[in-house]
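User: Predict Arrestin C-terminal-like domain-containing protein's structure from this.
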Amino acid sequence: MGKLEEFEISFTDNKVVYNPGDSITGTVKITNSEPIQCKAIKVKCHGYCGVSTKLNDTSWAAEEQYFNSTISVADKGTLKKGPHTFPFKFLLPATAPTSYEGPYGKIIFEIRAFVDTPRFSKDYKAEKPFFILKPLDLNNVPDIQDISSSSVTKDFTYMLVKNGTIVLKATSDLRGYTPGQIIKLETEIENKSGKSTSTVVASLIQKVTYKTKRPIHDLRTIAEVEGSGVKANKEAKWKEQIIVPPLPQSPLQGCELINIDYYIQVSLKSPDVLLTLPIFIGNVSVDTTRRTPSRPVPPVPRSTPPTVPKTAPPRPAPRPRPRSCYASPSAPPAEPEHLPLEVGTPQAEELPTKSHSQQQQGPGAQAAASPHAFSYAPGLSFSSQMRQNASAAPMFSVSTGATKPFYTESNVAPVQTACPLILPPNYGPTAYPYEPPPSYDETCNNT
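Assistant:
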């Protein structure tokens, strides 16, 4: 490093995560082996967002700046030999967004210090990043306490012949969640056809939009659960739960170049039916006690007697049709999944959950997250073994991207962590068939 033996930036109490409007303080430590002629020693605090059109590229196609402040901690003169300490202090603006790091863009905050030397002399620079969290209170989002529901109806065709319709309905208990909370999802499938459906899949999807001349949309499947299919002329209900892992908030308040959206996607492959439920991810959970009570039903006046609907007279029993004099060959009864639509209304049943579910982690299994996860996660408990493992490893406090990074709050270097709930598991092909077995008529025709 030449004449400088030490050039380091440190924050007070080793703090690296701040809120908008906080004051960031620290010191610049310089130890030089020889006197240095300098015009000034300056410290700069700035924050900006950069978006690129290439993966993991820092040649920004679009950029916006949030703040840029520079102070001089030493004037022109000679920096004597030995150690020197220069304190600094900056006030972070209240409009600064939350830190974020993605494959096509970043929101970066850092402190830079540099020794400005005379002409033809070497300048010395040092920099250190810090991170800002702007908490998102979900209770400030309009209509956040309402349930999120959607439905779709689609014709069911098989071999270019219309075979019926599929009605898919999905409902979530809330419209906003915090990391560690559980999304309670209820799905109803009404199969008005003579063919069984494929498995039903519910996914938590993250959509990040990087705004350039040609916007880039990055879609990630955060978590996925799967249930069995519905047989012909059956009506089934499927109840599942999805644990929300540590995720960046939606939206990024104060950032105009990066937008984050989340939604639950419920789909069937056969037939191709899909619906979405938009949700929000924040830092302060929804207060369900604020829900407005339903309007009371006005009582019926006593003077008005209740009206009894008139019942129609019973219809006479149909006459039996005369039997044919020709004998017909006997055959097994028709399969229940291929009954025609005239048989009656679909029968209701409960759908079992397959191996893609987050629930099937063994009896008494907890969510695979760290006790030191940054985002507010009410109701998330951890076993004693996880606490011991977490105490041995470096603490991490924030997750600003879909996969990374996690930052430390101690005096150790920032590290990344492998959280199994952040990336979707690698689901291979299952052993469950997607098509029903052949019917009796089909078997006879094939032979």
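Helices lie at 384-392, 440-446.
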